[in-house]
Amino acid sequence: MGLLTGLRDSISRAASSLFSEQDPKRIGIYGPPNAGKTTLANRIARDWTEHGDAVGPESHIPHETRRARRKENVEIERNGKSVSIDIVDTPGVTTKVDYTEFLDHDMEKEDAVRRSREATEGVAEAMHWLREDVDGVIYVLDSAEDPFTQVNTMLIGIIESQDLPVLIFANKIDLEDSSVQRIRNAFPQHETVPLSALEGDNMDEVYDKIAEYFG
Amino acid sequence: MAEVKAPDDTDGVQIDMISGQRMKGLTSMEKIRIILDGVREGNIVILEEGLTPDEESRLIEVTMTEISPDEFNGIEIESYPQSGDDEGSFLGRLMGRDSTPNKLTVIGPADQIETLHKDETLISALVSRN
User: Fold this and answer.
1) Topology, domain A23-214
2) Which Pfam families has this protein been placed in (chain A) (predicted)?
3) Which end of chain B is more exposed for a tag (fewer CB within 10 A), N or C?
């Protein structure tokens, strides 16, 4: 981006923020690895931004996202009102990273070790964002997997302790083993929204709830 | 824990059960150090009273910085999930974010503990020698 273009964009952003009712809220997309966080972030970005640029690459290999990525000023229109949010796609949170698991995905040892190093940095970064830099959380779970894991209960506890508004997204409802009720039973204190970010199923309700919770 | 060492020729698993009283008065980082030092020696650490959510968050962060290929893969941690509508949780929130959740917590090396089953009232785990 040229210097002048960058300067013009900065001034434009500063001016619009001066006149907006409030700054966009930063909404962190959290969850365990391979829950579909980046697929969701990309779908939101594609649906509501002018150029529809992807937030990041999607992959079935865990820890594809190893840096928190922010998509600014995503304007979601619902019921005649416009809600502006920044989406922060975060690396999947875990308490362990074993590089040998990447070797099962046809990766050379050197690449697997590098990926595991980057993954650990990414998880640490995600935890830092959660404590310091997000205003609300979308917690994404693979509805075909058991939600009763320690990482899920710990992270939901951490989010609750920060008094952050949280929506639980039961993703991958297109899979045969999907059970949204299992997630509702695990976290009855929070609203659970079923969806398939990959197939685009139930996205209307997803956007209604985002506007209701974070608008 | 640092003060007590298992004899080198044993092939058992050392378990450190740390009372709430011992942890009381320590800073978050001191608690995390006690846990990670024990786990990195291959011990299973059991906390009578668990960590606060903020301490759990920092434990994950510090654990990530210490993971090293072929040396330390991270931790397995288990505690009971807190029911959203129980009295303790409600009071905890009323009292502020740093209230101690009082939940028994087990932490061990990721390559030595495998969770077999977990629900609101039961955690079943398999502990193996390295």
Assistant:
1) Rossmann fold (3.40.50)
2) MMR_HSR1 (PF01926)
3) C
Residue A120 contacts B, CB cutoff 8 Å:
yes
**Assigned domain for B6 exists:** no
Tens-digit pLDDT profile for residues B74-129: 999 998 765 544 444 444 444 444 445 578 899 999 999 888 887 778 888 898 87
- Smallest Cβ–Cβ distance between A123 and the set B64, B77, B118 belongs to B64
B22 within some domain: yes
Structurally, chain B folds into a number of domains equal to: 1
ipTM above 0.85, yes or no: no
Average pLDDT per consecutive 10 residues, chain A (215 residues; last block may be shorter): 55 49 85 95 91 82 86 89 90 94 89 93 94 95 94 94 96 97 95 97 96 89
pTM summary value: 0.85
Q: Which two tokens stand for residue A157?
A: 């506890």
> Got the DSSP string for A88-120?
EE-PPP-SB--THHHHTTT--HHHHHHHHHHHH
Beta carbons within 10 angstroms of residue B70's beta carbon: 9
Q: Cβ contacts (< 8 Å) between B115 and chain A: which residues? A: 150
Note whether A82 contacts B: Cβ–Cβ < 8 A. Answer: no
